[in-house]
Specification:
heterodimer, A: Cytochrome C Oxidase, Chain A, 2 domains, 11 helices, globular, B: mainly alpha, Cytochrome Bc1 Complex, Chain D, domain 2, two-stranded antiparallel ribbon, 7 helices
Chain lengths: 350, 146
């Protein structure tokens, strides 16, 4: 580590791993319930286990992304973080909000909207927390000696992710509208701005690990995030096929979401090519393999398995079935979980 | 070969254009003329039902319009399939309902609350889901009419 303040990242990753372990436990609880062994029903009914399982995923990934930003931004901007103290305050408050939400789910205290179960009062705390985080990152960048494309893309991803949390807080009496805007958060996060974060992290690591020229890597980074948005924004339409809105989404969503695998394919090709091109022999082989692995598995999970059921003609039969969960699991594992684990390998120099 | 500047223009241009189209389509498909949900029938009772639906995280196990958990039955057409009486009985039951061994939390709802839920399900059941309604329920209207 070149900068002292980067150390704060360790704690974000520690929190992240703790939450991952808890997520696995709740995953098992659901698995057993599916198999008919539902002995914990009285204390942890299925809907509690599910809310905890999916929300822990979101929080551990966010904690990992925040750790990644605290690790990457100082190096890219060539500047210490503006305030390490505030970064710790942010870490602790993130952990507290997460714990409060998860405990609440065991006592029927939630907002039963898939993936956005955090109850409203805690939503406001999330907003404050993320604002603090963005403040630290942006001021560090602003005061930094260097502004790189990598740090720009990464912080744009983080900023948009923060802004896109807001449509999820709109109130509607209509389930159709509720669902419509819920996807603005969930889809545009996962198939939009989070890919910016992923792309930024990948390019930072590829520059470090392969020694390929920054200009070359960052040029392709633009192409990849360009493809992501070009397909991903209108690709939101694949969630709108059968929720009671206009049929136009069947056409728009069908065409653009069919293009979504392109971004992941580009990312996989990019990672493999840079690896082949690289002349630098970085000692951290494990981190390099995780980088390539993440790019490839995300292509399979998000790209191929997503494509398998994204066309309206197929989706009418897979919508509301476990096929969605199958795709979701490998997509999240490849694209986001592996990225966080890769940063761990990087940080600890395993 | 592509330059970095061109790559950036592709990213920014593509993003702005698709985002504007997305906003346009959103405005169009949510306009009153395109409503497929019979918004005029969305009574206070339906709205209260939706609050209860969320308060108890029903989506954690069930799906509605194909969205939610895949643990318990899809409920878009539940009133057509089961009738009001059955649905109310499940919601008001003081002991966990477990038709096939899988337990549902005993919500012990009052009669009024159960009625709001029924109104909510009825409203959901009448939404035009672009054909999905014929897949989720064998009793869907179009099948009966045919």
């Amino acid at each position: 580590m070149k900068y002292k303040s980067q150390k704060v990242a360790y704690w974000f990753f520690a929190l992240s791993m703790l939450l991952l372990s808890l997520q696995l436990i709740y995953g098992f609880i659901m698995g057993f319930a599916h198999a008919g062994m539902d002995g914990l029903h009285e204390f942890i009914p299925f809907n509690t286990a599910k809310a905890v399982h999916t929300n822990l995923l979101v929080v551990w990934l966010l904690s990992g992304f925040m750790g990644a930003a605290y690790y990457i931004i100082p190096e890219e901007a060539q500047n210490e973080l503006v305030s390490v103290k505030l970064a710790y305050v942010q870490l602790i408050s993130l952990a507290l909000v997460g714990v409060a939400a998860v405990v609440g789910y065991h006592f029927n205290y939630w907002e039963g909207r898939k993936f956005l179960e955090i109850p409203r009062p805690l939503d406001y705390l999330v907003v404050v927390n993320v604002l603090l985080f963005m403040g630290i990152i942006l001021v560090t960048l602003f005061k930094g000696k260097r502004r790189t494309t990598t740090s720009l893309v990464l912080s744009m991803g983080l900023l948009f992710a923060a802004l896109l949390y807001l449509p999820g807080m709109l109130d509607f009496n209509s389930q159709v509208l509720d669902s419509f805007f819920r996807w603005w958060v969930v889809h545009l996060w996962v198939e939009g701005v989070w890919e910016l974060i992923m792309g930024g992290i990948l390019s930072f690591l590829l520059i470090k690990l392969t020694g390929v020229d920054r200009e070359v890597i960052e040029k392709w980074l633009y192409v990849i995030v360009g493809l992501t948005f070009l397909s991903g924004i209108l690709g939101t339409g694949h969630h709108y096929y059968y929720i009671g809105v206009n049929k136009i989404w069947l056409i728009v969503g069908g065409i653009f979401s069919a293009l979504e695998p392109l971004a992941f394919l580009a990312m996989a090709l990019f990672a493999v090519n840079m690896y082949r091109k690289g002349e630098k022999k970085h000692p951290n082989k494990i981190a390099l393999y995780w980088t390539i692995g993440s790019a490839i598995v995300s292509f399979i999970g998000a790209g191929l398995l997503g494509f398998a059921h994204t066309l309206p003609q197929t989706n009418i039969f897979t919508h509301g079935t476990i096929v969605t969960a199958m795709h979701g699991h490998l997509a999240f594992w490849g694209a986001y979980a592996m990225i966080v684990l890769l940063l761990l390998a990087m940080l600890y120099q395993i | 070969m592509l330059s970095k500047k061109q790559a950036r223009a592709f990213f920014l241009g593509g993003t702005v254009v698709t985002f504007l189209i997305f906003i346009g389509l959103t405005v169009y498909s949510l306009s009153a003329a395109q409503d497929q949900s019979h918004n005029e029938n969305l009574s206070d009772s339906v709205a209260r039902g939706k609050v209860l639906w969320e308060k108890n995280n029903c989506m954690g196990c069930h799906t509605i319009m194909g969205e939610g958990g895949y643990y318990a039955p899809e409920l878009t057409k539940v009133i057509e399939r089961r009738g009001e009486g059955y649905v109310k009985a499940v919601l008001m039951s003081p002991v966990p309902w477990q038709p096939n061994g899988r337990k549902m939390v005993a919500y012990k709802m009052s009669k009024e609350e159960a009625e709001d839920m029924v109104e909510f399900f009825k409203w959901i059941g009448n939404i035009d889901l672009n054909g999905f309604e014929t897949v989720v329920s064998p009793l869907a209207k179009e099948k009966i009419n045919n």
